[in-house]
Amino acid sequence: MRLIPRPPGSREPGPSRMLYDLPQGAWERDTRFEVLEETIHWCAPRATLDAPATCLRSPAFQPQVMVDADRFAMMKRVIHSRHDALRGGPPRPLPPREGGLLQGGRLLVYFPDDSTTDGVAEMWTQGYFNVDSVPPWDAWVGMFREDPESAPQMNDYLIAWVPPAFLSSVAQGISANAEFCIQWLEDSTTMMAKHPKDPTLS
After folding, report:
1. Distances from the Cα of 176 to the Cαs of 15, 120, 181, 182, in angstroms?
2. What's the predicted TM-score (pTM) here?
């Protein structure tokens, strides 16, 4: 982990290209929509302010430690496990809520290499983020890697969906996060935040 955080402005990717994405090696719009939809269908009925640290951390999906070489395989396991669980269990309807495609929630981006493990976001969100500022794995949507012009700017990042119930506390966690390793997706300089006219990221 990097011990000295970088200011967010240094993350500007410039003319970059996506190197890796999941699932199935091609992050096409239809695939992204399907994964996001499954994420919301799994998380929305389970999100409760009574248990912020555990309600979206299903033991059956629990990933391994976020080590560089394993990040994309780890994301694939979470996505596939969630997919299988949705197909194998009884349907659970989404709570009634207007809010378009994101069902009133928002997308978050997490930069694992920028975390200093200070536990501040964990404290402000009562455990929604863990000590490394990682969002709960049930809500993970995808892992990405960009190839910026300068090698030091190369970053992996994780995108997660935040249910409406947790928007306020997550916003507080983001504000308290001094290393800028968690941001609302639309506030980031990532390529995924810049896809024009893409309803799955708006």
Report:
1. 31, 7, 11, 10
2. 0.79
